[in-house]
Amino acid sequence: MQKLGPVFRQLRLARHLTLQQVADDQCSLAFISKFERDERAIGFARLWHLLDRINVTPEEFFQALIPRTALAWQQAPDIAPLASLTTPYGPFTLELVETIAHNTSASRSVTQAQLLAMKQLGAGILTADGGTARWQQFLQLARDIGVVIVKSNQKADPLLDDQLFDQLAQMSQPVVAYLFTLDAWGIFEFTLLRLFATAIPPETLHRLIKLAVTRSQAVRQLPQGQALVMVVLQGAVSKFINNKQYGWAEEVLAARTTLTPEDGVRWALETRFLTGWLHLAQGDATGDSMCQTVVSMLETLGLHQWSKLWQRRLEMIHHAVAEPDYWAIYI
User: Fold this and answer.
1) pLDDT (tens digit per residue) in 229-252
2) Do 268 and 166 share a domain, yes or no?
3) pTM beyond 0.85, yes or no
4) Which end of the chain is more exposed for a tag (fewer CB within 10 A), N or C?
5) How many domains would you assign to the chain?
C-alpha cells in the first residue's frame, strides 16, 4: 500500500492545484506540505476535508491508495447513484438534474414561484464557507444554466434560437477551459461534463468526449464511476442526434460499447436503444423495433424503473421524428 501523503500530492498535482489553493483555516500550507512528504500524520476528519478541497472522493482516494481491479469492484450493484459517493456535491447534483428534467417536461408550464425556487436551489450548500470552493462555483453556474434552459422552454415556439445557444456556450466556458486544462479526470470532472453537456457547443463536446474516453480508466474502477461514464456518453449521443451529427453519435456509441463491462447488461441494452434512436433519426423505421425490444427486455429483467424511463424517452423520440423542428433539450 502506498502512503497517504504522497498519493494525496499526486492527486492534487493532477488537478493543477497549488498548496496555497488547497490550504485554509483547517489545514495550513505548512501542515499539508509536511503531510504530503509523510512527515505528519492525519486524522480522517482532516483527510476528508482535504479531499473535498481537491474535489476527490474518498472512494477515488482509496482506489489510488490500494488499487483494485475493475472485477473486484463489480461485486457492487450494477449501478450506484452519485449520491452514494462521499462528496459534498453528490446529492445537490442529483437534485439539480431532476429539477431541470422535471421543469423541462412536455407540459412546458413552470410558474414564477418554481423558477424562483430553482434559482435558490442549494443556496445553503453552495454558499457555505464563503462559497469559494471550485465545486461550489461550478455548481452555481450549472444551476444558472438550468434556469436559462427552463426559462427558454416557456416560449411558445419550441425551437431554440442561436442567441440562446451562444449564451449557454458563454456560460459553460469556465468549465470547458478547466476540463481541457487537466491531465487526469476524476468523479468531479465527469460530473461536470454530465451537468454542462447541454450547454457546451457540439464541436467542443465532441473533443471533450474523446478526452473523457481516454481519461475514464481510473474512474471506471468504481461502480459509481462506471455508471457516470455511461451516463456522460449517453448524454453526448442524445445531443449529437438532436443536432443531426450522426457520425459523432456513432463514434460515441462505439466507445460506449467498448467501455461496457461483460456483466453490464443494462448498459448494453441502453446502447442498443440509443442505436435504435439513431436509426429512427436517420429515417430507418427498424430503429423503432430496436427501442421497443429494449424496453420490453428491461421490463422482463425486472428493471421496471428503467423500463418506464426509456418508454417515456421513446415517446419523446417519436414526437421529435414526427415533428422534425421539435427540440428536446434535456433528454
Assistant:
1) 999 999 999 999 988 999 999 999
2) yes
3) no
4) N
5) 2
